[in-house]
Amino acid sequence: MDFNVKKLASGAGLFFTRAVQYTEEKLGQAERTELDAHFENLMSRADCTKHWTEKIYRQTEYLLQPNPSARIEEFLYEKLDMKAPSRVTNAELLGQYMEDAAKEFGAGTPYGSTLLKVGDCERRLGAAEREFIQTSAISFLNPLRNFLEGDWRTISRERRLLENLRLDLDACKARVKKAKAAEAKAGVAPDFQETRPRNYVLSASASALWTEEVEKAEQDLRLAQTEFDRQAEVTRLLLEGISSTHVNHLRCLHEFVEAQAAYYKQGHVHMLELQKELGRLPNAFALNSTHSVAAAAGASEGTESPVETETLKIEEVQAPATGTRKAKVLYDYDAADSSELSLLADELITVYTVPGMDSDWLIGEKGNQKGKVPVTYLELLS
Question: What span, in angstroms and rounded, lies between the C-alpha atoms of 209 and 188?
Fold first, then answer.
């Protein structure tokens, strides 16, 4: 119990000494030991690294999981050391709704069959998104978090310890300075004509006491200087390790970019496949429009108007004298039937439109080949 009381009193005295030294430094009444420029640069670089790593980490979290409630739930599961339940992505949920709707409307109808194909594509997009989130969390988010919760906490703790030892060192310097000043004042020879012998004896005794105090203060100063130098070296080594942290984060950033590129590539491929599949389906909207026009014409003539759909004969189509344009092919396209024209990415073709043709298609020509081509696969040039 006595030991604990003494330790508590010693700690309180040390805290008070540091508080006094810190206050006097802020008021400009005490000298402060300055670190060298290289050390200051290392600390500034470490602070900058922590600041931007934290911002990048938070924003990446928002990118991968925009829902704040879901982020809080995942955080609680992690702190409780429990595995978070698998979460369905929004694209997967949309795909499920589309497939359920197709079953209600009938998979044999144009709308139902299209919903099935789009729903399946959305499911695959959602699966790719979930894989991207998992890969990014492992390869990018976890290393950033490990730095903030591990290395940076160690650096911060050692820096606080260094600052405390610096305050102790400066307090020792101030104590030595005061002791030397008091020793010099006490060592001044008294005037025997004006000073009594008793006062002379007291002055000599005080001078001896101050000499002893100076020696003790200088010994404490040497000890404080040694501890400060040792802690400064430890802190310096940790701060120089920030360069290794940058190299590690650079590697993680490359992995994040690779994961993101793979995710968007998968999405691009899935959407191209969906476009091709939808292009092969009958265009119910265009068919209904043809029915409506024919019915209106028949009604105006007062006769019955049986709907007749005449297939466009590509070999009979002639390029107009004006209105043709050059187009660059964006993606490969495989013709679904003989009326369509197969395309290769980056090749140039001539395109034009003909009356009565769906706006989603153009007539394309390359060499002696001719056929329908989808507009979405082309970049029209001037």
Answer: 14
